[in-house]
User: Which sequence fits this backbone?
């Protein structure tokens, strides 16, 4: 099943479900459409590429296969800007190639291509000569994963006949192929026929979130008619599968006085193995009837005076495909207002044509106040728009919660909507998350979420405490908010360059006499990463008579690479080759962990005045920053801080001690 993983440590924020905006239907101009034929558009799963057939100039001969790239990709809502189409010269010949179908793999790359062509022995390139029967035939080619080239097309002997066989449509799982043929045994002119194949090898599911090919190989069986519920005495052509393989789109000229083609679709009843009675698509797909006022403009609307309505009635609508996110239809039509003969159009998939499936929402609600988090009793309210539709509860559990199988809530909802989930528990800050299940979510999918609720801590009394003389500090664990009993604090200012140890009383540290200048507090505790806290002169008055909390992080909360230290010779700023080797490891770590942010702290010994040492420590930190930038670490994830001599890790009384203080080290930033 499809799995998402979301970890949330956030407070309430307002989120409202919004429907997808209506976007105008589009007829594309040049370079996509021309005065020639642009027909049978096949849109790639993500909407990045459009493959179609055309007899435009610049091809190999008659009708060819062409491909264009969406320069607006990956924006799904922005109007596509199509690149000048390129001829698929690897497959095209001087004869006819068109009316094709593409099977995409789990990586959304073309895997197989089935197309319509004719027998031909006249090609200059012998690889392009084709076997076959008289008339139109179906051919198959497969991409070579090693070379990236398409194999020599093969005539499908087991599927083709001595009649006209054309317009193949392969199901997304690769197990069925529907095509149009006028062979004997049908009902009318051209009917839809279906051939199936069984997989001859078992394929491992590499990514359940992508279209899965079950039948990558195997022999196609003898075709049979799709049946009388779909076929008529008229013509059925241009089949195309929906991405889930349970709906078939096609064109038919049934019951049309002008013998013009309109789009239909038929649902596949998997339990009884047949296609149900087809349904006629409405505006803006078809032009056989007056279009509704819901359509968004010419050329989809009939002109107000109906002056050219007869031209609309005499239009054909053939060849349709949908993106895998169920947002967009692409189709071809020769309706009035186009560039030439058949043109390519795009319209948003109507809401009533979008599929809905059962979707599993499960996961863990965790207690964020514990050092080792446990499952929490909580209430989850799931809203569709503003109406509560489900209320579920999570249970308090312990044990190993590190695996994706650990859960304390589970429910089932329907796809096709935007949900808002409120999560609350007494004594904790509530939170919200969105479940956007609109568009193509698919069958048998789920979302796994870890939701961390933070406890509501007592509000601090901001009034001065008369029992505190001067300024008081207390040291706590950043994660648990518990007091660290073995902490040590050192005071630094411009006159106290060696630092002064503060006396601890019940894990509190008092400055009985308030400083008169900027000062710094260096805090150390066994098992925690040391930290320096900077306080400016103008903040001192607001700290008097109050308790200021200094937070340290447990060393177990850090990757060991955060303990990397770069040492510098006296008065030096440049990196050695050995330093660069250390930084290479740290750069790799930051690139692989995209949520990590780091402070680069520069330090000096206490030789020289404060202003000079601030500049020197900043230069040292900048040299490291610039090297990490060269290694492609984004600048937004790094911060430079100059600490001068305020964070000694050794005594400054000896050269050995001073050499340890001339350094750059690293601190994780939230």
Assistant:
């Amino acid at each position: 099943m499809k799995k998402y993983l979301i970890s949330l440590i956030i407070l309430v924020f307002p989120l409202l479900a919004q429907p997808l905006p209506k976007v105008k239907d589009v007829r594309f101009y040049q370079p996509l459409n021309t005065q020639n034929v642009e027909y049978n558009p096949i849109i790639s799963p993500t909407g990045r590429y459009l493959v179609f057939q055309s007899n435009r100039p610049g091809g190999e001969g008659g009708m060819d296969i062409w491909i264009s790239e969406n320069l607006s990709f990956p924006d799904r809502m922005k109007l596509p800007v199509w690149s000048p189409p390129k001829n698929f010269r690897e497959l095209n010949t001087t004869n006819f190639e068109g009316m094709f179908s593409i099977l995409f793999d789990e990586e959304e790359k073309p895997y197989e291509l089935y197309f319509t062509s004719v027998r031909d022995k006249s090609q200059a390139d012998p690889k392009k000569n084709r076997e076959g029967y008289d008339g139109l035939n179906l051919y198959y080619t497969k991409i070579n994963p090693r070379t990236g080239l398409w194999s020599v097309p093969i005539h499908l002997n087991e599927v083709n006949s001595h009649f006209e066989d054309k317009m193949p449509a392969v199901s997304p799982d690769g197990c069925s192929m529907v095509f149009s043929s006028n062979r004997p045994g049908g009902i009318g002119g051209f009917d839809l026929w279906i051939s199936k194949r069984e997989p001859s090898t078992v394929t491992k599911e590499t990514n359940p979130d992508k279209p899965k090919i079950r039948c990558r190989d195997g022999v196609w069986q003898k075709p049979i008619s799709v049946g009388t519920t779909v076929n008529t005495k008229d013509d059925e052509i241009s089949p195309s599968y929906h991405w889930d393989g349970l709906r078939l789109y096609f064109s038919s000229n049934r019951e049309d006085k002008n013998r013009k083609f309109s789009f239909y679709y038929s649902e596949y009843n998997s339990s009884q193995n047949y296609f149900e009675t087809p349904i006629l698509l409405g505006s803006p797909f078809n032009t056989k009837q007056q279009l509704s006022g819901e359509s968004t403009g010419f050329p989809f609307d009939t002109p107000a005076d109906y002056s050219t309505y007869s031209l609309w009635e005499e239009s054909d609508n053939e060849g349709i495909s949908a993106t895998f996110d169920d947002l967009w239809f692409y189709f071809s039509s020769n309706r009035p207002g186009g560039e030439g003969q058949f043109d390519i159009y795009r319209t948003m998939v109507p809401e009533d044509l979008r599929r809905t499936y059962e979707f599993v929402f499960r996961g863990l609600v965790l207690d964020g106040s514990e050092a080792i988090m446990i499952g929490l009793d909580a209430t989850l309210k799931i809203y569709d728009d503003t109406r509560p539709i489900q209320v579920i509860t999570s249970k308090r559990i312990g044990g190993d919660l590190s695996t994706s199988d650990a859960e304390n809530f589970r429910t089932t909802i329907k796809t096709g909507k935007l949900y808002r989930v409120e999560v609350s528990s007494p004594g904790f800050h509530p939170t919200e998350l969105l479940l956007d299940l609109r568009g193509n979510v698919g069958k048998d999918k789920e979302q796994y979420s870890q939701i961390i609720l933070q406890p509501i801590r007592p509000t601090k009394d901001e009034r001065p405490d008369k029992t505190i003389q001067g300024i008081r500090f207390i040291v706590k664990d950043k994660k648990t908010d518990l007091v660290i009993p073995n902490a040590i604090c050192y005071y630094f200012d411009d006159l106290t360059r060696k630092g002064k140890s503060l006396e601890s009383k019940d894990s509190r540290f008092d400055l009985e006499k308030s400083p008169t200048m900027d000062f710094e507090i260096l805090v150390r505790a066994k098992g925690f990463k040391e930290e320096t806290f900077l306080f400016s002169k103008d903040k001192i008055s607001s700290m008097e008579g109050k308790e200021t909390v200094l937070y340290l992080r447990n060393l177990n909360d850090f990757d060991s690479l955060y303990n990397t230290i770069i040492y510098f010779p006296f008065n030096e700023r440049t990196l050695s080759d050995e330093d660069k080797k250390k930084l290479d490891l740290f750069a790799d770590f930051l690139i692989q962990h995209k949520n990590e942010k780091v402070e680069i702290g520069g330090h000096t010994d206490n030789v020289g005045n404060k202003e000079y040492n601030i500049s020197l420590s900043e230069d040292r930190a900048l040299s490291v920053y610039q090297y990490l930038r060269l290694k492609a670490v984004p600048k937004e994830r790094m911060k430079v801080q100059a600490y001068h001599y305020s964070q000694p890790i050794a005594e400054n009384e000896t050269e050995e001690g001073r050499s340890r203080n001339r350094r750059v080290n690293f601190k994780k930033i939230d």
